[in-house]
UniProtKB/TrEMBL annotation:
<dbReference type="GO" id="GO:0015188">
    <property type="term" value="F:L-isoleucine transmembrane transporter activity"/>
</dbReference>
<dbReference type="Pfam" id="PF05525">
    <property type="entry name" value="Branch_AA_trans"/>
</dbReference>
<keyword id="KW-1133">Transmembrane helix</keyword>
<keyword id="KW-0029">Amino-acid transport</keyword>
<dbReference type="GO" id="GO:0015820">
    <property type="term" value="P:L-leucine transport"/>
</dbReference>
<feature type="transmembrane region" description="Helical">
    <location>
        <begin position="36"/>
        <end position="60"/>
    </location>
</feature>
<dbReference type="GO" id="GO:0005886">
    <property type="term" value="C:plasma membrane"/>
</dbReference>
<feature type="transmembrane region" description="Helical">
    <location>
        <begin position="182"/>
        <end position="202"/>
    </location>
</feature>
<feature type="transmembrane region" description="Helical">
    <location>
        <begin position="271"/>
        <end position="293"/>
    </location>
</feature>
<feature type="transmembrane region" description="Helical">
    <location>
        <begin position="330"/>
        <end position="353"/>
    </location>
</feature>
<dbReference type="GO" id="GO:0015818">
    <property type="term" value="P:isoleucine transport"/>
</dbReference>
<dbReference type="InterPro" id="IPR004685">
    <property type="entry name" value="Brnchd-chn_aa_trnsp_Livcs"/>
</dbReference>
<feature type="transmembrane region" description="Helical">
    <location>
        <begin position="400"/>
        <end position="418"/>
    </location>
</feature>
<keyword id="KW-0472">Membrane</keyword>
<feature type="transmembrane region" description="Helical">
    <location>
        <begin position="223"/>
        <end position="243"/>
    </location>
</feature>
<feature type="transmembrane region" description="Helical">
    <location>
        <begin position="72"/>
        <end position="92"/>
    </location>
</feature>
<protein>
    <submittedName>
        <fullName>Branched-chain amino acid:cation transporter, LIVCS family</fullName>
    </submittedName>
</protein>
Length: 425
C-alpha cells in the first residue's frame, strides 16, 4: 500500500467529517460532564467518529451512490430516504453554519442582527453555488490544517497550565448523552451523502488498484482518520472539562469555545480562529447547497433550472433558519435527528456487514424494526415522552433515547436464523 496515498486518503476522510460545526459541540460536552468527561467522550466518539467511518467503509464496499444504501428495502424507500436526507441537510446544518459564523466572528465585534448576517452570508453562498468557484476547494484544503494547529495549541496549553481538578458532572447519563450529542455533528449523514465523493476520488487517482486493494486502502485510511477524530474530540471534551469551574454554567457553545481560545491563546489568536471557523462554515454551506442542488438536478433530467431553483430555495431556507441562535437550531434539529439517525446508523451497519448476513429479507426486517422502535424516541423529543411512557417504558434503553438499538440487533439475529432455516428447508 502506497504511504502517500494512505496519508492523502486519511486526511481527506478526516477533513470530510471535521467541520466548523464539530468544534462547538465537544467543549460544552466536557464542560457539563466534569469529572465524567471520559464517559461522554466515548459516547460522542461512537456516533461522531466510529459511525461516520463505518459509513465510508460501507461506501467502499458498495462502490455506488447514496441510493444504494437503502435499495435493498425498496427503490421507493431509497428515493424517499435520499430526499429526506438532503432536505434535512439543507434545512438544518447549512443554516447553522451562518449562525455559528455570526456568534464566532460577527457578534463579538459588531452590533448587528443574526438576520443581517444570514442574509449576506447566503447571498454569497448562492453566488458561489451558481458559479461553482474553484477557489473554495483550495481554501477548504488549507482550512482544516490551520484549524487543527490552533486547536492543538489550545488543548496543549490547557492541559499543561490547568490543574486536573474537575467539577462534578451535571449529566445523569453521560455516555448516552454523548452519543445523542454526536448526532448534532450530522457526520453519519455526511458519510452517506458525500462519502461517495471520496470513493470517486480514489477511483480516479488509483485507477490501477484492484477492488480489494481499494477497500484495504480505505479501511486503513478510515482507521487513521477515526483515530484522529477520536483524539481531537476527546481532547476538546477534556479541555472543556478543565474549564468547568471558570465559566458561567449557562454559557453557550460558541461563547465557551471563544472563551477557552482567549484564555489559552489571547484575543489575537481568538480572532484568527474566528476567521478560520467562519471560512470553514462557508465552504460547508456551499458544499451542502451544491450537493443538494446536484441531487435534485439528477432527478429532473439534468435540468439546470432545477439546480438553480434548489440552490435558491436552500439559500432562502438558510436565511430563515440562520437568523436563530446556534442553541435554538440545535434544539430544533433534535426531533429530525432522532428520526433519521437510527435509520442512517442501521443502514450503515447493514451495508458494512457481509452480504450473507444481510439478504434483502433480513435487511427489510431490521430497517423497519429500527424505524418502529425509534418512533418513541422521536415522540419524546417533541415533548410527548410522558404521554407515551406508560406504553413504551418496557423498551430496553428507552430511558436513554436509544430504544431502537436492542430491537434492531435482535431483529438481525432472529431474521438471520429464520432465513438460514428457510434456506436449509
Amino acid at each position: 500500500m502506497n504511504k502517500k496515498s494512505l496519508t492523502i486518503t486519511s486526511f481527506a476522510l478526516f477533513s470530510l467529517f471535521f467541520g466548523a460545526g464539530n468544534l462547538i459541540l465537544p467543549p460544552l460536552l466536557g464542560f457539563r460532564a466534569g469529572n465524567l468527561w471520559w464517559l461522554v467522550a466515548l459516547g460522542f466518539c461512537v456516533s461522531a467518529a466510529l459511525v461516520p467511518i463505518l459509513g465510508i467503509l460501507a461506501h467502499a464496499k458498495l462502490q455506488g451512490t447514496m441510493f444504494d444504501f437503502a435499495k435493498k428495502v425498496s427503490p421507493l424507500f431509497s428515493t424517499l430516504y435520499c430526499f429526506l436526507m438532503y432536505a434535512i441537510a439543507i434545512a438544518l446544518p447549512s443554516p447553522r453554519t451562518a449562525s455559528v459564523t455570526h456568534e464566532m466572528a460577527v457578534q463579538p465585534f459588531w452590533d448587528s442582527s443574526y438576520l443581517l448576517t444570514s442574509l449576506i452570508y447566503f447571498v454569497l453562498v448562492f453566488i458561489f453555488a451558481i458559479n461553482r468557484a474553484k477557489v473554495l476547494d483550495l481554501i477548504g484544503k488549507l482550512l482544516t490544517p490551520a484549524i487543527l494547529v490552533v486547536l492543538v495549541l489550545i488543548m496543549a496549553i490547557a492541559g499543561f497550565s490547568l490543574d486536573f481538578d474537575f467539577a462534578p458532572s451535571s449529566l445523569t447519563n453521560p455516555f448516552s448523552y454523548g452519543i445523542l450529542e454526536g448526532y448534532q455533528t450530522f457526520d453519519a449523514i455526511g458519510a452517506v451523502v458525500v462519502g461517495a465523493v471520496i470513493i470517486v476520488s480514489i477511483n480516479l487517482k488509483e485507477k490501477d488498484l484492484a477492488y480489494d486493494d481499494k477497500r484495504r486502502l480505505i479501511r486503513a485510511a478510515g482507521f487513521w482518520a477515526g483515530l484522529g477524530l477520536f483524539i481531537i474530540y476527546a481532547g476538546l471534551i477534556l479541555t472543556g472539562a478543565l474549564f468547568g469551574k471558570l465559566f458561567d454554567v449557562d454559557i453557550s457553545r460558541t461563547a465557551l469555545l471563544s472563551g477557552i481560545s482567549i484564555a489559552t491563546l489571547g484575543n489575537t489568536a481568538n480572532l484568527f480562529l474566528s476567521v478560520l471557523v467562519s471560512l470553514a462554515c462557508f465552504t460547508t454551506a456551499v458544499g451542502i447547497v451544491t450537493g443538494t442542488s446536484d441531487f435534485i438536478r439528477s432527478q429532473f433530467n439534468d435540468s439546470v433550472l432545477a439546480y438553480r431553483i434548489t440552490a435558491l430555495v436552500g439559500c432562502v431556507l438558510g436565511v430563515l433558519v440562520g437568523q436563530f441562535n446556534v442553541g435554538h437550531i440545535i434544539a430544533v434539529a433534535l426531533p429530525a435527528l432522532m428520526f433519521i439517525y437510527p435509520i442512517t446508523i442501521i443502514l450503515i451497519v447493514l451495508n458494512v456487514l457481509p452480504d450473507k448476513l444481510t439478504p434483502p429479507t433480513v435487511f427489510k426486517i431490521v430497517v423497519w424494526t429500527t424505524i418502529l422502535f425509534s418512533i418513541p424516541d422521536f415522540l419524546g423529543s417533541i415533548g410527548w415522552g410522558n404521554a407515551i411512557n406508560p406504553y413504551t417504558s418496557w423498551i430496553p434503553l428507552g430511558q436513554y433515547q436509544l430504544g431502537w438499538v436492542l430491537p434492531a440487533l435482535l431483529a438481525l439475529v432472529l431474521s438471520n436464523i429464520v432465513h438460514q432455516k428457510t434456506k436449509v428447508g
